[in-house]
């Protein structure tokens, strides 16, 4: 007769694992740590520094994604302001065609960077 094998779970040595998420360590300046600690002290539950950093990162990421795109009227107003500023510093000795070409280059940016810009739709 065969003997039955028992599944015995043996205890692992050492401290038990606390979390399943990977650990990320960062180096903070004294000023930044002081600012984080001051922010944590102002909170109602006074979180420890790691929890305060986690909350601040979540707040920052939430506000970055919640930024709404500029409306067409705001874009047009910005273009008009840029046009006026460029006209003030434009070279008056250049021909009107050359001035228009220079203005276009200033507004659009160098050709190498046009595809990299995040604020413009890719065509």
Walk me through what this model shows:
- The protein has five helices and no strands.
- Among the domains are: 30-65; 72-110.
- The protein has 123 residues and is mainly alpha-helical.
- The longest helix is centred in the middle third of the chain and has 18 residues, at 72-89.
- The protein has helices spanning 30-42, 49-65, 72-89, 96-108, 111-114.
- The termini are far apart.
Name the descriptors:
123 residues; mainly alpha
Report a brief summary of the structure.
The chain is mostly helical. The chain is built from 5 helices and no strands. The model has no long low-confidence stretch (mean pLDDT 81).
* Fraction of residues in helix: 40-55%
Radius of gyration: 29 Å
| Biggest β-sheet description | none
Please, how many helices? 5
Percent of residues in beta strands: under 5%
Q: Which residue ranges are poorly predicted, with pLDDT under 50 across at least 5 consecutive positions?
A: none
Structural class: mainly alpha
Number of strands: 0
Instruction: Give the helices and strands as they follow along the chain.
Output: HHHHH
What is the CA–CA distance across the termini? 77 Å
Mean pLDDT across every amino acid position = 81
Indicate the overall shape: elongated
């Amino acid at each position: 007769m065969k003997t039955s094998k028992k599944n015995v779970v043996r205890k692992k040595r050492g401290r038990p694992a606390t979390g399943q998420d990977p650990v990320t360590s960062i180096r903070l300046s004294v000023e930044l740590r002081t600012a984080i600690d001051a922010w944590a002290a102002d909170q109602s539950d006074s979180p420890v520094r790691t929890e305060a950093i986690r909350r601040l990162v979540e707040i920052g990421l939430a506000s970055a994604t919640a930024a709404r795109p500029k409306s067409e009227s705001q874009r047009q107003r910005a273009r008009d302001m840029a046009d006026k500023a460029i006209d003030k510093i434009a070279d008056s000795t250049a021909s009107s065609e050359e001035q228009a070409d220079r203005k276009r280059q200033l507004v659009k940016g160098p050709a190498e960077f046009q595809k990299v810009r995040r604020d413009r739709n890719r065509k």
